[in-house]
Amino acid sequence: MLTIKNLRVAVEGKEILKGINLEIKAGEVHAIMGPNGSGKSTLGNVLAGKEEYEILEGEVLYEGQDLLDLSAEDRSRMGLFLGFQYPVEIPGVPMVNFIKTSVNEHRKFKGLEPLTAGEFLKLMREKKELVHLDSQLTNRSVNEGFSGGEKKKNEIFQMAMLEPKLAILDETDSGLDIDALRVVSEGVNALKNPERSAIVITHYQRLLEYIVPDFVHVLYQGRIVKSAGKELALELEEKGYDWLKK
Ligand code: ADP
Ligand code: MG
Ligand code: MG
């Protein structure tokens, strides 16, 4: 599904990603862990198509296509989703309009008719229930005045509405209490199937008790310094990152 080859990326002239190699097959969940400032968000943002990054070298193939050549919109239409570490408030844009436009743009790309008002409301109700999102929130502007936890749940709600093939979740667990964490994880797990993959970026092992990864990678100073199975997350919880820094 996704192949990253020797990806080197700079921001404002500073090299942040220093040669990332990663292979993600359909159906797999990969966790990316690592200390603050390692480049985890940079990697997620580059994959999703955020501008301001300079690609110095390397290649990213998504379902055989050159991902870095595509606009962020096209990447989304092709099934890529990024849940932001810091979701943005968009005053004046009601959640309902935002998500309806997104869903119907995705449908158009697949050659499907837009959902009728009834179908859309039914889908929205179903997905809100999945993540226990307060029913009123979709009447407000995107993320405006949402609590930290509500913003994170809203990311998972949007993901559930769009049913991406490749979901990248950037520290969705940060700022969530244990109940919200469980709900969010259930939302992610509900999407799991053999055709869908996820990259779960997290600082802590806790989330990975609920979303069990097939592989765990440690990113440190712009490089993947260790890759292993899910047991690596437990080892990191116990020993921290210092042993890998050496
Ligand atoms: P992580 O998500 O692992 O905490 P980030 O990808 O956010 O790490 O950041 C990696 C490094 O890149 C940090 O040193 C950060 O300051 C720097 N960086 C990220 N984005 C920018 C930016 N837009 N401008 C300048 N430096 C940036
Ligand atoms: Mg960070
Ligand atoms: Mg980050």
Task: Describe this structure in a few short sentences.
It comes from Sunxiuqinia elliptica. It contains 8 helices and 12 strands. By secondary structure, the chain is of the alpha/beta class.
Give the SSE layout.
Layout lengths: L1 E10 L2 E11 L4 E5 L6 H9 L4 E10 L2 E2 L5 H6 L2 E4 L6 E5 H15 L7 H14 L10 E2 L5 H15 L3 E5 L7 H14 L5 E5 L13 E6 L2 E6 L2 H9 L2 H4 L1
Parallel strand pairs: 3-10, 3-11, 6-9, 9-10
Antiparallel strand pairs: 1-2, 1-4, 4-5, 7-8, 11-12
Helix pairs in contact: 5-6
The site of adenosine-5'-diphosphate has 12 residues, from helix 1.
Could you describe the 3D structure shown?
The chain is built from 8 helices and 12 strands. With 246 residues, it is of the alpha/beta class. The strands form 3 sheets. A 6-stranded mixed sheet has the order 6-9-10-3-11-12, with helices on both faces. A hairpin with a 2-residue loop joins β1 (2-11) and β2. The mean pLDDT is 94. Bound molecules: adenosine-5'-diphosphate and magnesium ion (2 copies).
